[in-house]
Amino acid sequence: xxxxxxxxxxxxxxxxxxxxxxxxxxxxxxxxxxxxxxxxxxxxxxxxxxxxxxxxxxxxxxxxxxxxxxxxxxxxxxxxxxxxxxxxxxxxxxxxxxxxxxxxxxxxxxxxxxxxxxxxxxxxxxxxxxxxxxxxxxxxxxxxxxxxxxxxxxxxxxxxxxxxxxxx
Length: 168
Fold this sequence. Notes:
By secondary structure, the protein is α+β, with helices and mostly antiparallel strands. The protein has helices spanning 2-7, 43-66, 102-111, and strands at residues 12-18, 29-36, 152-155, 160-163.
């Protein structure tokens, strides 16, 4: 899954046509095309690029098989410790971990954009929040000069926000 390629900060992915055998992803390779993961790619743009590259690779491979011009290459001596798993992504996996390095946070968001979308929750405790003097206090006869800040829940990958429920 290429979500994880972006999320892991990898700079290259690709498409492969191969023969099937009894083991997963270990059949003889018929053709491959590498594709760089650019800094401004997200999973949506990379999907589109790989879809077009994969379509062309499959049709070219079928044409080569029909012409008898294919030489399958067995996958041998693969160091399985270098392979990365592609587990299912759950909602909690999409939460932004703000303790990570900035580049890891950006890669996380890019790898989940536009779908399933990275997310975070920003909260402020109203009891601890002090309003600046320009805001009126509840029960005050003064008119407010501005609306006080409110808690927000931000969906970082989509750059949109909605009000989060306030506690108490």
